[in-house]
Amino acid sequence: QVQLVESGGGLVQAGGSLRLSCAASGRTFSNYVMGWFRQAPGKERELVADIRYSGELVYYGDSVQGRFAISRDNAKNTVYLQINSLKPDDTAVYYCAAKGRASLQWDYWGQGTQVTVSS
């Protein structure tokens, strides 16, 4: 089992920045692809970014390209999401997730952290 705990959400004005963190425990962190998802009210959960095992490859969704930055620190078992130039449309619950090397789906999820952007 892998336990994931997100932090860093909050209320911020449009144009501001936030840094989300996700601390993992339970298994070897570097064996997992780590991802950040978000879900806004009435919308489906979407993948906003993911990062490979040692950070060698990252992916960003089209809606966040150029504004979000994902990173990981395997020594601290933590993945980060730097969110810049926040927009009201970024308002959502942000979830951290982990996917093992042999997995075709995301295996573990955090409880989520709320990000609210005011205009």
Tag the structure with descriptive keywords:
single chain; 119 residues; mainly beta; seven-stranded mixed β-sheet; four-stranded antiparallel β-sheet; 11 strands
Structure description:
- The chain is an all-beta fold.
- It contains no helices and eleven strands.
- The strands form two sheets. Strands 2, 4, 5, 6, 9, 10 and 11 form a seven-stranded mixed sheet that branches. A four-stranded antiparallel sheet has the order 1-3-8-7, with no helix packed on it.
- A hairpin with a 6-residue loop joins strand 5 (46-51) and strand 6.
- It is globular, with a radius of gyration of 13 Å.
- The relative contact order is 0.32.
Summarize the structure.
The chain has no helices and eleven strands.
Major sheet attributes: 7 strands, mixed
Helix coverage percent: under 10%
What is the 3D form?
globular
Quote the beta fraction.
Answer: over 45%
Q: What is the helix/strand order? A: EEEEEEEEEEE
Unreliable spans are none
SS elements, strand count? 11
